[in-house]
Specification:
By secondary structure, this protein is an alpha/beta fold. About 35% of the residues lie in helices and about 20% in strands. It is built from 9 helices and 8 strands. The longest helix is centred in the last third of the chain and has 20 residues. The chain binds zinc ion (ZN).
Length: about 250
């Protein structure tokens, strides 16, 4: 991959993170040369987008339908009170450009569907699954496996958060972890913004690691955090040989 050069303005903005051993100017140039899809941009995806934008990713494709509702504002940090009743994705794009005017934001005013998932995944280097519903999550998982793209998978419920990184052919995919849609899963669920922000920031960091080679990722490990007790657990996860999505890939 031919890496983008940094401008003097970018060197000034990213100076402090380029001091990180293992990141440096090379990591910054890799990030600038990278693109990501984030779906959706609510409690989880908002902090993912915000942290990727702040860190200097080159291009963000963000997909989120609907309008801002009062019940979004406890956790969806890219939405604002004066945006209630207006497009969520316009609020997301505006806030991201305010933070980082160098960022190329592609605002998609719809959620992931069977009709758009292949094209959206095909535009980017990495996918962040921040969707609450399993049909969307399974759709992104299937396309990432088919197209060989990494996917960072994040979820929250109540005071619990979990994050893992899926590398097709190397780690379990989402269908290995969930052979069936959990029965109790619903679109609305208890959540505190600080918990989804923790999971979102963790997911963004995972993506930065995958894209730049910094540190060690959660590939093959599910990070489970119970914020009620602040217990962080690393759970080894394995591929299912009979997985209908990734079972045919070489091990
Ligand atoms: Zn699988």
């Amino acid at each position: 991959m031919k890496l983008a050069h940094l401008t003097d303005e970018e060197r000034a903005v990213y100076e402090w993170q380029m001091w990180i051993v293992g990141f440096g100017e090379d990591g910054q140039r890799r990030l600038k040369s990278s693109s990501a899809l984030v779906s959706r941009c609510g409690g989880l995806g908002g902090p993912v987008c915000y942290n990727l934008a702040a860190a200097g990713i080159g291009r963000l494709v963000v997909a989120h339908g609907g309008v801002v509702k009062p019940s979004d504002l406890n956790r969806q940090i890219l939405m604002t009170h004066d945006g209630i009743g207006k497009s969520r994705i316009e609020s997301v794009a505006r806030r991201l450009r305010e933070l980082n005017p160098r960022l190329d934001v592609v605002a998609v005013p719809e959620n992931i569907t069977e009709a758009n998932v292949a094209g959206l995944v095909g535009q980017v280097d990495i996918v962040f699954d921040c969707a609450p519903l399993f049909p969307e999550r399974f759709g992104m998982n299937r396309e990432c496996v088919r197209q060989g793209k990494p996917m960072v998978e994040a979820a929250v419920f109540n005071l619990e958060a979990q994050v893992t990184t899926i590398l097709p052919g190397k780690t379990p995919c989402l269908a290995c972890l969930y052979p069936r849609t959990p029965e109790q899963w619903t679109r609305q669920f208890p959540v505190l913004g600080a918990v989804s922000a923790l999971a979102g920031a963790t997911a963004a960091l995972e993506g930065i690691k995958v894209l730049t080679g910094l540190g060690t990722t959660l590939a093959g490990t599910l990070l489970h955090v119970d914020t009620a007790t602040m217990e962080f657990r690393r759970i080894p996860i394995r591929r299912r040989p009979d997985c209908p999505v990734c079972g045919g890939l070489p091990t």
